[in-house]
Amino acid sequence: MRKIWLVMFLLILVGCEQAQETAASAQLSVMLDWTPNTNHTGLYVAQEQGYFEAEGLDVEILLPGQTGADQVVASGQADIGIGSQQAVTLARAQDVPIVSVAAIIQHNTSGFAAPVDRSIASPSDFEGKTYGGWGDPIEEAMLDALMMRDQADIDQVEIINIGQADFFTAVEREVDFAWIYYGWTGIEAEVRGIDLDILYLTDYAEELDYYTPVFFANEKLIDEDPEMIEKFVAAVAKGYQDAIQDPDQAAGILLDAVPDLDEELVYASQAWLADWYQAEADQWGIQQLEVWQNYANWLDDNGLIEHNPDVSKAFTNQFLPE
Fold first, then answer.
1. What global pTM score does this model have?
2. Once rounded to an integer, what is the mean pLDDT over residues 27-42?
3. % pLDDT > 90, the chain
4. What is the distance between the alpha carbons of residues 180 and 115, in angstroms, rounded to a whole number?
5. pLDDT of 67-82, one tens digit each?
6. Does the pLDDT of residue 21 top 90, yes or no?
7. What is the CATH number of domain 110-208?
């Protein structure tokens, strides 16, 4: 009898160990929206500090390729993607079932920037200037929206496609202004000692204060394995909280993971973004229906989406830690 109980005990013990190993080996992939930068710091902190491991996740960080993260996640080739509210809204308008599960930054920190010698102090000053973009129709709509408030004419702006060209090289050689995110390129200008004039989108239109970037997942994965999404969000939330509370340590972790980044830029950018990840929100990652609806309405009003989607299905707060 004692031998039987001993065998049973050993079987239970082996089963428990196997279950733990299975939980610990749950694979999850995350595709970035851009080359690694301080928008992504919380992800790298969660990985380095063992927050993913503690949740039983083995997370692989994927660099972006020719195909956007929204398409890769929608097709199931990656589990989680990083992108903007804009990308998710456009996808939903085309019935692509991706859902934002957390906002990385609470406000849109982007704007149209130019070296001060171009004398661009208001949208009307875009007239007679050359804009360098990446060929997205939304860029022209953004320019037009801002210029109309100054009764300026977008037809007086030369728009050229510079793709992923470096902002500083582009404004030296061929354009007067471009669309940048202050938390990275704006801070880089500070580090370089270059003075910029920046017209932030949020200063001109409330509906342009959308979430960018966000984490998103495929609806199918959310339905089939909500526990994995919850574990991911719980771990990455800790990573961003660490970045908020100790930006220098977080910057060091990012640099260890991606040593090719400029050290001075990373530390300066991290210090600046620490106040923007959560901003005035009750917690990191939370999203509001009003923000999603306002931006979807703007896209619809400007003819940039096929139809105005049900944005209540485009995002969720259900996976955020309580």
1. 0.90
2. 97
3. 85
4. 12
5. 889 999 999 999 999 9
6. no
7. 3.40.190.10
Residue with tokens 């404004």: 171
Residue with tokens 């970037």: 213
User: How far is residue 174's CA from residue 118's CA, in Å, rounded to a whole number?
Assistant: 12
Q: Please check the confidence at residue 31 and state whether its pLDDT lies above 60.
A: yes
CA distance 232 to 52: 7
CATH topology for 26-106+213-313 is D-Maltodextrin-Binding Protein; domain 2 (3.40.190)
Going from N- to C-terminal start, the domains of the chain cover 26-106+213-313, 110-208
Q: Which of 17, 15, 76, 29 is nearest to 57 (CA)?
A: 29
CB atoms within 10 A of CB 128: 9
At 232-253, the pLDDT tens digits run: 999 999 999 999 999 999 999 9
